[in-house]
Amino acid sequence: MMSDYENCRMHMVDVQIAGRGILDARVLKAMRIVPREYFVREGMEELAYEDAALPIEEQQTISQPYIVAAMIEAAEVAPGDRVLEVGAGSGYAAAVIGQIADRIFAIERHELLAELAQKRMAALHYDNVVITVGDGTLGLPDEAPFDAILVAAAGPDVPPALKEQLAIGGHLVMPVGDPGHQRLHKISRLSEYRYDVQPLGPVMFVPLIGEQGWHEDGLG
After folding, report:
1. Contacts 24+ apart (CB under 8 A), 194-199
2. pLDDT of residue 215
3. How far is CA 106 from the centre of its chain?
């Protein structure tokens, strides 16, 4: 017999995700497995399966479930992949990706969020997800190349470092724009120097702060 949270999770996937056009069976299966209530701020567990972004520590957010699914599907994450996620937040998206891909490296600039996310991975035995603290705009060159890169914050443009760390044939998905006007982009690496850019639609994310993103003391 399923718990209330499990029932909510199945409903979330069927109505909010599959019902809105997400077709990748691996993404749907992964989101049925990962308990989102573990990844929200304490006291907000009852809201875990609402189709909305929720506040977490350090004035950040956990993205709405549909956006998480849409980004993973757009990045074409597949079994055997090595994936980089920038902006780990609570760790939820990395946990979902980890149900599909072989190895996940997630960067978070807030030490507290990274610590909490890593504790959740350990508690759930998600051993293929590694959370690190650092400037996500610079990626992880020592672990590159990556088959897919997902960025959960909006920058003024796609950081060159991340494009360089994308494997040929790989896909990078991130929002681009200022807080008032952001669009999700899919960047596919065709060769060493050629990239295809596909706009996917309007979104709203926190700013991507870092050396190749927005400045810490304000946009611009």
Report:
1. 195/163
2. 86
3. 9
Q: Is 167 within the bounds of a domain?
A: yes
Return the CATH number at 139. Answer: 3.40.50.150
Residues 6+ apart with CB under 8 A from 162: 84, 86, 137, 139, 149, 151, 172, 174, 212
Cβ contact 121:95 at 8 Å: yes
Structure tokens at 149: 């890169």
Q: Is 90 a catalytic residue?
A: no
For 157, residues 6+ apart whose C-beta sits below 8 A from its C-beta are 176
163 inside domain: yes
Structure tokens at 191: 């060769």
The pLDDT tens digits for 64-104 are: 999 999 999 999 999 999 999 999 999 999 999 999 999 99
Q: Which domain holds residue 147?
A: 52-203
Distance CA 135, CA 149 (A): 15
Q: Number of structural domains, the chain?
A: 1
Q: Which of 3, 63, 188, 191 is catalytic?
A: 63
